[in-house]
Amino acid sequence: MGNKKKSRPVAIDVYAGVGGMSLGAARAGFDLAAAVELDPIAIETHAVNFPRAKHLPWDVATTTGEKLLETAGVKFGELDGLIGGPPCQGFSEIGRRARHDPRNALFGHFFRLVAETQPRFFVAENVPGLLDERNRDCVHEALSLVPENYKLLTVTEVAAHRFGAATTRARVFFVGYDTQRMNPLSEDAIFRGSESEFTTVGKALEGLPKVRSDWQTQSQGWRVADRLPEDTPFRKKLTNAIPIGVGCPNAIERLRRSNEISGNLGTRHAEEVVQRFMALKPGTTDKVSRAPRLTKDGFCPTLRAGTAADKGSFQAVRPIHYGAPRVITPREAARLQGFPDWFQFHATKWHSFRQIGNSVSPLVAEGLLSRIRSKLQ
Questions:
Q1: Catalytic residue among 88, 138, 248, 300
Q2: Where does the chain hold its CATH 3.40.50.150 domain(s)?
Q3: 10-195+360-373: which CATH topology?
């Protein structure tokens, strides 16, 4: 940064994944200096969408604050926000919820980096299961690393549909700030949702092409969608609100020129599965696959990520489209989670769904970070 006066506040995203929190920060007016993510597929995709940021394929557990700031080009004392979503599988209500899962320790390393980088504020998100009584010692130990000059807001659960996404996905947020370098923050000012911007599944998926099961390759997934009037906040965010220096130039160009968007990948279902899905009522669950059928006028349940290679590479259950006897596409999942049409994911369905399922909704991240930014001195 040198001695230049910063034109925008600076953030670093650790455990960045594909970039849901990063996108929220960029749209809230932050300059994303760096993203830290150990998963090579996730960090590669993040780089496609945030080409100006430093991309660091590091293990956060062995990363020091000094090294992080130096590599990001940020002087000590000049970092505005440290943001991120530490891995949550060890805390999740899905799976074994192993108390001594080594991934649980990664939660504490986020707050160690808070102490070592001294940002003006921090935001960490995780699954609601983290607040269970059995995790109390882990959370207490992590938060004890935060220096005394920070005030921690009450840990608050936020549902994504309250911030304009078409999913009820809930996450808890840990927000703290340096009382000497920021104006006071309150839970009500930061976490309040909106009753007027609800986006149903039908509204979120409107205009997307009717998908064929033989659309299997990356090139086949690029399809022309209908142009929709930007008459709601959600629609405006679908095609616009592209921060400076963010986005894949090719994807943005194809969207602007011909409304082409990627990720419209079909799934080949056996005929018996198709018949079973056709008979399934919206809002109910298929007894064989355990896949829920979406309701057009409702919200999507939490999209799951599936497991990584070290846990067997299991595909997460994907919801069934409300109007077609098939599971949803990566682009449909992205729409439901609140990602814009120009945002890119991995070429494969498996990795795309992992990236989307692991990500915080960028609409939630933008909402929270916009309010925090307004309190920067």
A1: 88
A2: 10-195+360-373
A3: Rossmann fold (3.40.50)
Question: What CATH number does the domain located at 201-357 have?
Answer: 3.90.120.10
Active site annotation includes 300: no
Per-residue pLDDT of the chain (377 residues; tens, 9 = 90+): 443 456 899 999 999 999 999 999 999 999 999 999 999 999 999 999 999 999 999 999 999 999 999 999 999 999 999 999 988 555 544 444 444 445 567 899 999 999 999 999 999 999 999 999 988 998 999 999 999 999 999 999 999 999 999 999 999 999 999 999 999 999 999 998 766 679 999 999 999 999 999 999 999 999 999 999 999 999 999 999 999 999 999 999 999 999 999 999 999 999 999 999 999 999 999 999 999 999 999 999 999 875 445 444 456 789 999 999 999 999 999 999 999 999 999 999 999 999 999 999 999 999 999 999 999 96
DSSP 226: P
The string of DSSP letters for 190-223 reads HH---SS----HHHHHTT-----TT--SHHHH-E
In this structure, what token pair is assigned to residue 149? Answer: 């000059």
For 221, the token pair is: 């997934």
Q: Which of 351, 362, 357 is nearest to 40 (CA)?
A: 351
In the chain, list all ranges with CATH 3.90.120.10: 201-357
Burial annotation 148-184 (CB, 10 A radius, 16+ → b, else e): eebeebebbebbbbbbbbbbebebbbbbbbbeeebee
Beta pairing partners, 83:
13, 123
Contact yes or no for 33/50 (Cβ under 8 A): no
The pTM score is: 0.92
CB neighbours of 223 closer than 8 A, spacing ≥ 6?
Answer: 209, 215, 260, 261, 264
Q: How far, in Å, CA of 29 to CA of 284, rounded?
A: 41
Reduced 3-state DSSP string for 122-134:
EEEEECHHHHCHH
SS3 56: strand
